[in-house]
């Protein structure tokens, strides 16, 4: 297993619960999220920037 630092841009959602689900779904495309944080919100573009640490299994890399 290895860890990777990633950033993602997520569309803002109607509720905090929907936003959390959207973030977790997007991060799972890159690996298993270990922790994440919203680091920037662009209200005009309706986007949130997320920085995360994900765990990727060695078999997924090969």
List the helices and strands and how they pair.
Layout: E1 2-11, H1 16-28, E2 32-42, E3 47-56, H2 58-61
Structure explained in plain terms:
The chain has helices at 16-28, 58-61; strands at 2-11, 32-42, 47-56. The N and C termini lie close together (12 Å). The chain is elongated. The protein has a 3-stranded antiparallel sheet. It is built from 2 helices and 3 strands; from the N terminus they run βαββα. The protein has 62 residues and is of the alpha+beta class.
Short description:
The chain is α+β, with helices and mostly antiparallel strands and 62 residues long. The protein has helices spanning 16-28, 58-61, and strands at 2-11, 32-42, 47-56. The chain has two helices and three strands; from the N terminus they run βαββα.
Terminal residue distance = 12 Å
* Biggest sheet: strand arrangement: 1-3-2
> Over the alpha carbons, how many angstroms does the gyration radius reach?
12 Å
**Binned strand content:** over 45%
Please tell me the total number of domains: 1
What is the ordering of alpha helices and beta strands?
EHEEH
Poorly predicted parts:
none
Biggest beta-sheet profile? 3 strands, antiparallel
List keywords for this structure.
single chain; 3 strands; alpha+beta; three-stranded antiparallel β-sheet; 62 residues
